[in-house]
Specification:
The structure is a homodimer of 112-residue chains. Chain A is α+β, with helices and mostly antiparallel strands and 112 residues long. Chain A has 4 helices and 3 strands, in the order αβααββα. Chain A has a 3-stranded antiparallel β-sheet with strand order 1-3-2. In chain A, a hairpin with a 2-residue loop joins strand 2 and strand 3. The radius of gyration of chain A is 17 Å and the shape is globular. The interface between A and B is large, with 42 and 42 residues. Chain A binds a DNA duplex (30 and 30 nucleotides) through helix 2, helix 3 and strand 3.
DNA sequence: CTTCATAGCTAGCGTTACTACATATAGGCA
DNA sequence: TGCCTATATGTAGTAACGCTAGCTATGAAG
């Protein structure tokens, strides 16, 4: 499955994968691949701009480090990011309930 | 709730609201408002272009009619649209399961 | 020395839903 | 008559998002 239709939900997923502790972009991709059972495999061109967006929004903070000779940008949730994550989780529940209702409510011509 | 984040799911909802029989755009807005308990209130600038997209894609067909002196464009599902709806419903189940997994899988630092 | 995995980044593209506006009729109200 | 609302459709332009494609760089394996 690709993430073409993530619109707006990607941020929540990124925040969620940082909830367990700071991570760098490349690791976030792997984490999401694992937590979704391999269904979600994000390209780097999606992740890195998204992380910068979140950083600019003040929801995460990034810092450079070097591990094994390779530089990493490690991101961690800010308090605002933590709050945002809670909100996004609630939004997702609302949203998914709404879409499910719309997809089921369409037919139901037999209220038997 | 607004539909800013519907990306890709709107089509499925439109198809679903046509599943119970042919409808015109204005009625689809009302139908979706009702089936989502008022949570989804689409602006006409969203609906009409979307219906034309679906028509161009061959998933619905539109025909003009006049009711009470006002012209209406009534849309109905094509066989392809019916098949597409089934696919979209399945996609939605996959997608929502995936997002839910990612939102829950983020934390779980204690596999106790 | 080449290839792969790791790690990061950007420019430009296509799609999508939105805002704001325009059009037209029917009906109610003053 | 004039005005407003609800019904009904449509377009132009905008903003946002995620993707493709390409780039740089290191460490390890062959």
């Amino acid at each position: 499955m690709r993430a073409e239709e993530l619109k707006g939900h990607l941020d929540a997923m990124l925040l969620a994968s940082l909830e367990g502790g700071p991570q760098h972009g490349y690791a976030v991709i792997e984490a999401l691949r694992q937590s979704t059972g391999g269904r979600l495999d994000l390209p780097t061109g999606t992740i890195y701009p998204a992380l910068r967006r979140l950083e600019q929004a003040g929801l995460i903070t990034g810092s450079w480090s070097v591990v094994g000779g390779r530089r990493r940008r490690e991101y961690r949730l800010t308090p605002a990011g933590d709050r945002a994550l809670s909100g996004r989780r609630a939004d997702w529940l609302d949203f998914s309930a709404m879409v499910t209702a719309a997809l089921e409510g369409g037919p139901c011509p037999n209220p038997a």
